[in-house]
Specification:
The complex is a heterodimer of chains A (413) and B (287). Chain A folds into two domains: 16-159 and 300-382, Response regulator (Rossmann fold, 3-Layer(aba) Sandwich), CATH 3.40.50; 162-294 and 385-401, 3-Layer(aba) Sandwich (Rossmann fold), CATH 3.40.50. In chain A, 42% of the residues lie in helices and 16% in strands. Chain A contains twelve helices and 14 strands. Chain A starts with a helix and ends in a 16-residue tail after the last strand. Chain B starts with a helix and ends in a 9-residue tail after the last helix. The chains are: A alpha/beta (413), B mainly alpha (287). Chains A and B meet through helix 2, strand 7, helix 7, helix 8 and helix 9 of A and helix 1, helix 4, helix 9 and helix 10 of B.
Chain lengths: 413, 287
């Protein structure tokens, strides 16, 4: 009897010691990204960026002191709790994304969701979060209607299509004033939520600004051949082309334009596939002078963004690209909100997200800060124009944020 | 006819010959054993990675990559036959379908694990500059792939219809028991069929890698086209796959150029349904 009681006590002590060693509770967050399918390359870089964000929060990083939660370990308001991210693969389809969201919410019991790269998949995954009353933050999906659905649990950190359209418009008007021809503009867009909505916003903004969109070519990103699209461009020969594409199609366009020997005087890419590190490494040499948008630039050594870029490069061997930087920023915003909520309760996290107020020096991306309006849109999000120069995107516009000189016309290969 | 329209047709023929090239292996397996190989697209993917590795390891172009990929894929084909297909052939129809589908997923996710999700491409000048005739440009990698596609399809066709080996294979596919009584070993013939089909797929993949991106899911994208080509041309008919491939290439190109890229699939599949409605066995399949 005594012996049994003794062994029981010993067991309890071991359990107590073990749970102490494991440490405080963990906070589970679900992340839904394309880890297989055609956007898997971009999705896996975003995954690495989110893992880095969590690593920065969970461990002590005094060198990144401007970043909330970087110094010290874990979430202080939750007794130093660590964040655990559970990744789910959306397989590049809205249906798979929706199923994964349901699984993460009901089975993994995550307290918040982040994702889902493709706008068309963010539509379905965030609807699932809304139905279950779970906070959802999208760091990168830009389709305009995402924040127009009256959702209460949806937040978006990235600048949206309207912002890009305005910067493209301002940029082109400035080039026109500088003597470049922008009389005819073509838009080539993939035809899911992302491409369609960005193309239509660009058309609206350009129409108001007196820029002449003469040709719109929607296409399916999951295609084996883009020769007809390039030949349609070659036939009309526009001065400016804007591509709204994912990675596999972006690679095919770069190759095919060279094969068929056609290029416009100004070629613009709307981020996404053209910023995937595997696009830059396979096709960067074919698109010298390509104009792009970005919310992230590594900046000068010693700056916050440069330090974070170094950490990312150590982990993945590539520089932090723009969509991945935005994914990372999304995770940091979410961690900050959970910490301020001081609780894992959904309503408190939602309230904390709503009260988010980060300054420009507290974010990794080039945003002017983070502050959500009643629709959940970050009103301080911003981006700048970059250009492919010698295999790297260099910020070139606006002038006060430029790190290099804009070179026109587009050179290509 | 405008020069651009002519270019659309030429480009369509070139991509169509490539479709025919990577569909011939699929139709051969069906013709020989009545098995649909759902892992076909992933065989193409393996061949593309083989070409990529031949390039990174030895700096070898298609001249080296094509034979290497043909041998590796033929081996993969024979292994698939002895380790998987031979067993599931005895099972119900559903087991046959799910068996090769499982193989497809195994290959795809092994590629994710081993190669990672990154897109890879071969240097785009690996075969030199395109041919220019007047205002028409013919891309060298596509021309090579298309030409080899024609040759491989023709050779497979001759092998099946004009050689003793082909007759033996056909005998097994018609009636395995009767063939066995005539002294033909069905299993050996079927293994040869898998080696030939996968080997041809290896040639196709190594050539496609010269102008297309390589990623673990590229097989998924290409397999859809292969299935349509095979059904269009007639299951089991190698020349049918050739005619169907060329037709699909040109129709896709023309409809994408004249109507719009998003409508090209509508046109192709509408025609596909029409053909199957009038001729369920496909253009050149046996009734």
């Amino acid at each position: 009897m005594v012996r049994r009681a003794f062994s029981l006590a010993a067991m309890l002590m071991v359990i107590a010691a073990l749970s102490d060693a494991v440490g405080q509770q963990t906070v589970k967050v679900g992340a839904i990204y394309p880890l297989s399918g055609n956007a898997a390359s971009a999705g896996n870089y975003s995954k690495a960026a989110i893992e880095l964000a969590v690593e920065i929060v969970n461990n002590d990083h005094p060198e990144l002191k401007d970043l909330p939660l970087a110094a010290g370990s874990g979430l202080p308001a939750l007794g130093g709790a660590k964040i655990e991210v559970i990744f789910a693969d959306n397989q590049g389809t809205p249906a798979a994304g929706q199923n994964q969201a349901l699984r993460l919410i009901t089975e993994e019991k995550v307290i918040a969701l982040i994702g889902a790269y493709q706008s068309g998949i963010t539509v379905t995954t965030s609807a699932m979060a809304e139905r279950h009353g779970v906070p959802f933050i999208t760091p990168e999906s830009v389709a305009a209607n995402l924040t127009e659905r009256g959702f209460k649990w949806f937040f978006r950190a990235t600048p949206v299509a309207g912002d890009f359209a305005r910067s493209y418009s301002d940029f082109l008007k400035e080039q026109k004033a500088a003597g470049h021809k922008v009389a005819s503009i073509a838009i080539v867009n993939e035809n899911t939520e992302y491409g369609n909505s960005v193309a239509s916003v660009i058309r609206d903004v350009f129409a108001k600004d007196g820029l002449n969109v003469t040709q719109v070519i929607p296409y399916s990103a999951n295609t084996t051949d883009v020769q007809p699209q390039v030949l349609q461009l070659k036939e009309k020969n526009p001065d400016v082309v804007i591509f709204v594409s994912y990675t596999s199609d972006a690679i095919l366009y770069a190759k095919t334009m060279k094969d068929l020997n056609w290029k416009p005087a100004i070629m613009i890419a709307d981020n996404a596939g053209f910023n995937d590190p595997s696009f830059v490494s396979t096709s960067g040499a074919l698109v010298e002078g390509l104009v792009n948008r970005s919310s992230f630039a590594p900046g000068k050594p010693g700056t916050l963004s440069a330090l974070v870029n170094d950490l990312y490069k150590k982990k993945t061997n590539v520089d932090l690209d723009d969509p991945s930087a935005r994914a990372m920023q999304g995770m940091l915003i979410l961690a900050d909100a959970i910490n301020r909520a001081g609780s894992t309760e959904a309503a408190k996290i939602q309230a904390a997200l709503r009260a988010t107020d980060l300054k420009a020096n507290q974010v990794v991306t080039g945003y002017n800060g983070v502050k959500f309006d009643e629709k959940g849109q970050n009103v301080l999000a911003s981006s700048l124009i970059t250009q492919m120069q010698g295999g790297k995107y260099v910020p070139v516009w606006p002038k006060d944020k430029a790190a290099g000189e804009l070179k026109l016309p587009y050179k290509g290969w | 006819m405008s020069a651009i329209l002519l270019q659309v047709i030429v480009s369509g023929l070139l991509i169509g010959a490539v479709y025919a090239l990577f569909s011939s292996g699929l139709t051969l397996i069906w013709g020989m054993m009545n098995v649909i190989n759902f892992a076909h697209g992933d065989f193409v993917m393996l061949a593309m990675y083989t070409a990529f590795m031949v390039w990174t390891a030895f700096g070898g172009g298609p001249a080296a990559a094509v034979p290497v990929a043909a041998i590796i894929l033929a081996t993969v084909g024979v292994l698939s036959y002895f380790l998987l297909v031979r067993h599931i052939m005895r099972g119900p129809m559903l087991a046959q379908i799910l068996g090769t589908f499982g193989l497809a997923l195994l290959l795809r996710y092994s590629a994710f694990w081993y190669f990672g999700a990154n897109f890879k491409t071969l240097p785009d000048n690996i075969l030199g500059a395109p041919f220019v005739i007047g205002s028409i440009r013919i891309d060298a990698p596509r021309l090579l792939a298309g030409a080899v596609g024609l040759i491989v399809t023709l050779m497979l066709h001759l092998l099946l219809t004009r050689s003793a080996l082909g007759s033996r294979m056909l005998a097994v596919s018609e009636d395995a028991t009767a063939a066995q009584l005539m002294g033909i070993r069905p299993e050996r013939m079927q293994a040869v069929a898998w080696a030939l089909a996968a080997g041809a797929t290896g040639i196709a993949g190594a050539l496609i890698a010269t102008f297309f991106y390589t990623s673990p899911t590229v097989g998924e994208t290409l397999a859809i086209v292969a299935f349509v080509t095979v059904a269009f041309g007639g299951f089991g008919s190698v020349p049918g796959a050739l005619v169907a491939g060329l037709l699909i290439g040109v129709i896709e190109g023309l409809s994408a150029f004249l109507i719009g890229p998003v409508y090209k699939d509508v046109v192709v599949y509408l025609l596909f349904v029409l053909v199957l409605w009038i001729r369920p066995q496909g253009l050149m399949g046996k009734a």
